[in-house]
Each structure stands twice: as structure tokens, then as C-alpha cells.
Amino acid sequence: MRIMHPGSIRYAEAWIQSQGWKPFPFQRQAWKAYLDGHDMLIHSATGTGKTLAACLGPILQSLEASSKRAARSASDRESVRQANAPSILWITPLRALAGDTQQSLEFAISGLSSPWTVETRTGDTSSHIKKKQRAKLPDALVTTPESLTILLSYANTMEQLSHLRAVVVDEWHELLGSKRGVLLELALARLRKGAPHLQTIGLSATLGNLEEAFDVLVGPSSQRPRRIVHGKHKKRITIRSVLPQTIERFPWAGHLGTRLVEDVCQAMEQAKTSLIFTNTRNQTELWYQELLKAHPEYAGQLALHHGSLDSEVRDWVERALRDARLRGVVCTSSLDLGVDFASVEQVVQIGSPKGIARLLQRAGRSGHQPDAESRLIFVPTNTLELLEIAAARRMMKRGILEGREPERLPLDLLAQHLVTMGLESSYRRGEMYDEVRTTHAFAGLTREEFDWTIQFAKQGGDSLSRYEEFRRLEEDDAGNLMVKDIKTIRRHRMSIGTIVAEVAVQVRYMNGKNLGNVEEIFASKLKPGDRFLFAGKLLELVRLHDSVAWVRKGKGTPTAVPRWVGGRMPLSSQLSDGIREMIEEAALGGYREREIEAIRPVLELQREWSHLPRQSELLLERIKTRDGFHLCIYPFDGRLVHEGLAAILAYRLSRQQSITFSLAANDYGFMLHSTKDPQVTLEQVSRCLHAEDLESDITAGLNATEMAKRQFREIARIAGLIRSSFPGERRSGKHLQVSSDLIYEVFTNYDPNNLLLIQAKKEVLRKQLQWDRLQQSLRRISNTSLVWRDLQRPTPFAFALVVDRLRERLSSESLADRIRRMQEQLELAASKRKQLGTIGR
User: Fold this and answer.
1) I want to staple 641 with a disulfide (CB 3.0 to 4.6 A). Which of 289, 637, 826, 834 is the partner?
2) What is the pTM of this model?
3) Rounded distance, CA 257 to CA 20, Å?
4) Cβ-defined contacts of 686-691 (< 8 Å, 24+)
5) What are phi and psi of 804, to 5 degrees?
6) CB neighbours of 15 closer than 8 A, spacing ≥ 6?
7) Where do runs of H (alpha helix) occur along 195-297?
């Protein structure tokens, strides 16, 4: 009988077959590519075995190396060093994934009879274990970008990692296009410099720009052979929409709300375990309460999971999911990624996911086995969201996914990195410049920009050079850069990273038990006795003291619901294309999709009262009501783009006449409202919707200074200009805001060419206004035919925009009453028109 070599692919195949599985071709390709010395990007559907595809190659390589070392003399010092060096780093974007990944690696290591040890190192790891790891790292370390960067800040780390052979970046699509991704790029550049044999493996399930993603992962100077390994993408996915029994012909955002709770409960009865995804944390809290209210017997079977809950609560929920002890979990994107819960048989998506890749990612949380079916049930919060899910499903079938645009030249993060690398060891300018330019993000960094950033890290720039707290890097006469001040070292390690959340206030029971945290901006508006929903409970505020909200269980109904910044997600450009395609089909009489047939009454009334635009058309409606004049335009390009278009159009029209506009925008269109008739023509609007002088006009049309100030707060934190508190030290969010605003004013007045100031303005355009998409939208509009309609009442498309404007002036109760009256009046008008049409016939 032939004995298989432990380092061979056949050895791995035999083990997998012994588990009752059959290796996929893409897994074999990945093992061979790794053993042949390739860098890889493994692209495969969720739940198809990417983890085994990534980890078995390095394990087999280690087994082969171990057998060769055993043949050498035990006195061979190099063999001993290699034997004690870590073999693989596994980078995960979420701490919640670390434990699950560790279990998967241990399963494979045990099955292949490898002697590897596996540990995790994240923000949840105890200081005792971290200290032991600094002395000796395990064979396989599962960590996050932030924890890896902190580890690299210690002087002996690179010596320990000098024989590192593999780094695996899990869920690369989640990091790509963010400053967290750039943080990892810089860490990888340091690893590759110290461990020249290092191979890189990226894992991704939902990504549209694979080649570019691979370029970013390996860096522009990589000479290693590379390969994209395509795995299984034909995973069976079924998407079914819950259709409201009554389709309101004048829909508005959130109007369905929790009316479909019973439909969700019925769906939960059909599955062992369901993940119920919402798009925001406050929506998660509301749906959890409504589900329990509808079915009190779910108590103990239904759980809540989002990023603001205490880690112990989240850990309990994840363990209960693994043990199949829950009927359902209401969650946010906190359970989006990579965690394998075999008990989850279906996903319920509340509200539009706003992107095709996000829909696919969430659907893949169910049926998380290679040949299992993924099931997703879509629950609209707005009738028109049925358009979005039909478009997303069609694009998904065509294999169209969103890409992620890489970050370029974030100098705030470079400044942080330059300080991090000088914490316990020194470096020279030229060597560090060459190193950071091996990353995709800083490949275009000029020497002038680099030297400016060094000077900034040394003294805070020209305008802050007199203040000692901004002096971090020190440079000796030989040109060596290092951080020497002990307090600066301690403070900087605590602030490493790019995740800049709003200042949090802990929520605790009077007995001291921690429930999680809410944002300070919400907590500051509460008064003792106010009741709010949090952690699935009704809580009453007793007092707010030292950034802690002390609470007790409340009775009655909530008087407030926590809201978190950054909850609303913009529509993707690919989904925008799909929606325009769906509307054109309806304009031509096509109602092929079940969801489009369901909203036929809405679309046909829109066509009867106004127009259904084709893809080559742009619809404009001028509506005169008792409330004033409304100019509504429908590009279907997403809320952020529409906010920019509205500002541009309002500014350019106001230069032609003295008039004041108020603006409203949603994912489908935008509205300019004025109390007097703007008396604009189709030709005037057409002339205003162009891309010339775009940057100057949008800066003038928006409060760009205030937007740049808000963006600068993030940059100031990352760059180290302002800091969070030490443990036990209380610093309010107001203090941090005042500090960043003050520095912004100092730079504006005394250092206007400060590169961080310029970066803030660029990030406002790119992130808050989706600059590239805004330009694309204007170019597309210039090639369309404008269709103008003068109307006496809001159409179904316009109704949601009118409601959004009313939200700013009315409380929620009076808003609901006002909307109900408006809907009744419009339905009455539609009925009368239909009756007149019948009499005429």
C-alpha cells in the first residue's frame, strides 16, 4: 500500500473525503497555486468552502517543511528558528469572526495531523494573553487589521515574523475601499519587507472589480506570480418578496413600517432559525419589540444583535446560534460576514439592501453549506422598494455586482502610521518612503507629500509647532526617526486604527450591569424619566453622569428611540441601472416580475397623471399646490447623488432670479420647493444640469465649510490631532468636536495649504456627495430627453418627496395625520378622475 506524503495535495483530498465530502475543483486549484508559490485571490460564493481552500495549502507546506527540518541536525539553529516562527497570519475584518475562524483552522489542523497551535488576537483578547504572544507567537494567529498594526509597533515583532510564509485576508471586499483597508496595506508592506517569502491569499464572495481588488491586495511592486481562483458562483438562491395586501398608490418612506410583522412571523414558522436583517440599529430595536409584541411566546427564542450591544450579549447570541437554540435573531450588518451558523435556514431582509452585493452576502448567511440552498424573504418598508428587489434579483442573475473603489493617499492615516512605526524602533526617511510606496494607496505619493507628513508627525504642521502635545516623532542628527516620550507611546497605541465612531455613552442598570452604548448626541437630549428602547428592553433614564446613562426597567411606551449616525445607505449605481430598466419595461406595458405586477396600480397612476420615463428620458414635474411650487426631477441615481444635483440646480437657478428653495431628496429623485412661482422653463433647467464648473458651484450651493468641518473631525482623530480619553479619564464628544473645529479654523486661517485640510475637502466630494457618480449622472442626463409635466397635485413618485420635506416641520404624530389626509385627498381625486373617464366613454 502506497503511503501518501503529508505535504501532498492527495493527503488533503483523502482527509476531506474521510469527512464524507468531495473537494471542489477550485479548492484543488488553490492548494496547487499556493504550493507553486503564487499569490491568490479566491472568489467564491458564501458557504462554498473558501476557508479550506485558503488554509490547507499553508498547512501542507508546513508539513513538508517539518519533514525536511527533521532530516537536518538538531543543532541547526536556522531550523530551530524556522520551527519556532509563525507560519500563517489570518486577517479578519470583524472580531466576531475570529473565534469562528480559529475553530475552522483547528478542525483542519487536527484532521491533517499538524502540530500547529492557533490563537486569536483582537480587541477582546486579554492583556495577559497579548503579553505572552509578544514573547512567542503561535503557529497560526487570527487577528484584525488594528490588532496586527499594534503588534507591529513592538520592536521584536518583525524578528518573530521573519519566517512567516502566508497571510490570508478574509472578506477582502469588506476592507477594500476603506481606510481600514489602507491600514492593512501598510501592515502588509511592513510584513513583506521583513518576510520576503511571504505569500498573500485574499478571500472574497461578492465583488465586481476583482482585478483591481487583487492589485490593491498585493501592491504595485509585487513580482510574485499571481492567480485569481474562481470558485462556485452558481449557489442556489431563492428570493421571495412579501407583498402587502393593500398597495397604497401614494407611498412614502417607511410607511409600511411594522405592518408586515405577522408576515415575518409566518415566515419564521417555516424555518428552524432565521436571521432578520435590518439596515439600521434603531430599526433592529423596533422590529425586535414588535415581533415579541405580536408573539409573546417568542421570548427566549428571539434575540437581538448589533454593534452597540455589550460584547457579552453578542457572544451569547452567537453561541446560541451555533447551538441552534434560537428561532430568530434580529440583526444589522454585525452578522453580515463570514460567521458559519449551520442552523440558519433562511434570511429575512427588512427594507431594501440598496446594493446587489449586499443582498447576495446576506442571502448567503442561510444554507451555509456547499450544496445547500440560500433562502431570502424580502419585506418592503416602502411599496416602491419592490422595484429595488426585483431589479437587484435580475442584476444578480446576470452576475452584475458592485465594485469597491480603493482609497488613495489618505495622509491622515500615513501620519498615524509614521508614528506607529517609530514607537519602539527607529527608521530613516528614505527607507520608509520606499516602503509605503509599495502599497497601492500610496504608490503615487510624492516626496514632497511624504516629507510634509513627516514634519506634521514631528510638530503638528507649521501652525501648531509651538504646542508640545503635537510633537510626537523625533529625528536625531543621523536622520533616525523615533517616538521617545513614554506618554506619547502609550496614548498613540490606544488610538491606532481608523474606526471613528461617534462618542459613546455607556448604558448601565443601577446595579452596574452594562448593556452596551448609545451615541452621546442621543443621550444628551434625554431627561430623567425618559423611556427608550435599547438592547431589546424598555429602559427609563435615571441620570446621566460621567458618560454613563444609568437606567432601570421602564413601563409604558417609549418616548425616544436611539438613532445612530451613518444609518442610511445610498443606492448603488448598478441597482440604479436596474430600476431604470424596470420602469422602462413598465412604461412599455411589461410587468414580468411578480413585484412589478404587485405595484402596477402605483405605476399606472404615475403614467396616467404624469409619465413613466424610459431610460433615455428624464422626467420633470412642476406641481402647484396650496403649499407652494414643487419642481420634482427623477434621475433614479440614489440619495447622495440627488442631494448634490438638488444643490447644484437650486444654486444655478437662484443666480438667475431672486428666490429661496428648500430641498428634499430620496433614492428616486429630488425636489426644489419655493413659496413663489420660480417661473423656470424646460430650457433653463436643461442648461443648469451640466458638469461645467461643477466643483465651484456645488461648493457654493452647499454649506461646504460645515461639511468639511465634519469630515475633518474624522481626519483629525486618525491623524492624532485629537485623542480619546485614557481609561478612567472622561472627555466629552463636545470637547472633541470643539477641539477639531478649533484646529480646522487655525489651519484655515494660518495654514490654508495644509494637506489635511485639502484632504477633508476632497473627502467631502468623494464620500458625502459621491463625486464620480455625480459627474456620471450629469453626463447621462445631458444625453437624455427631458420630459416636462405641469400638474396640480403630487404624483405617486412626488408624494414621498413632499413627505420628506414635511418631516422637518412636523412631529411624527402630526406628520402621520397630515400624510393620511393627503393620501385620502389624492385617492379621492384619482377616483373622481376615473369616474369622469367612465362617464366620458
Assistant:
1) 637
2) 0.87
3) 46
4) 686/786, 688/648, 688/649, 688/652, 688/653, 689/645, 689/648, 689/649, 689/778, 689/781, 689/782, 690/778, 690/782, 691/775, 691/778, 691/779, 691/782
5) -60, -35
6) 111, 112
7) 210-218, 261-269, 281-294
770 close to 488: Cβ distance less than 8 angstroms: no
Q: If DSSP codes are grouped into helix, strand and coil, which group holds residue 88?
A: strand
Stated length of the chain: 841
Contacts (Cβ under 8 Å, ≥6 apart) of 788: 620, 622, 682
Give the pLDDT means over successive 10-residue stretches in the chain (841 positions).
66 90 92 95 85 93 77 54 75 84 92 93 88 92 96 93 94 93 97 94 91 96 92 80 85 74 93 92 90 93 90 88 92 76 90 91 80 89 93 92 93 97 93 97 97 94 82 91 92 87 80 87 83 90 88 86 67 94 94 94 95 97 91 95 92 87 92 90 92 84 75 90 59 57 88 92 86 93 95 92 72 62 75 57 39
Close Cβ partners of 368 (under 8 Å, ≥ 6 residues apart): 46, 47, 340, 341, 342, 344
Instruction: Count CB atoms within 10 A of the CB of residue 76.
Output: 12
DSSP 8-state class, residue 726? P
Spatial distance between the Cα atoms of 592 and 581, rounded to a whole number of angstroms: 12
What cell does 567 get? Answer: 444609518
Q: Cβ neighbours of residue 390 under 8 Å, at least 6 residues apart?
A: 241, 582, 593, 594, 595, 596
Grid cell locating 162: 521573519
Q: Identify the burial level of 78 via C-beta atoms within 10 angstroms of its C-beta, where 0-12 means exposed, 13-18 middle and 19 or more buried.
A: exposed
Residue type at position 649: L
How far lies 564's CA from each of 216, 283, 536, 625, in Å? 31, 10, 16, 35
* Extended beta strands in 460-585, E state: 474-475, 480-482, 504-509, 514-519, 531-534, 537-545, 548-553
Provide the total of helices (H) and of strands (E) in the chain, helices listed first. 33, 26
DSSP three-state, residue 206:
coil
CA distances from 705 to 649, 680, 712 (A): 19, 29, 10
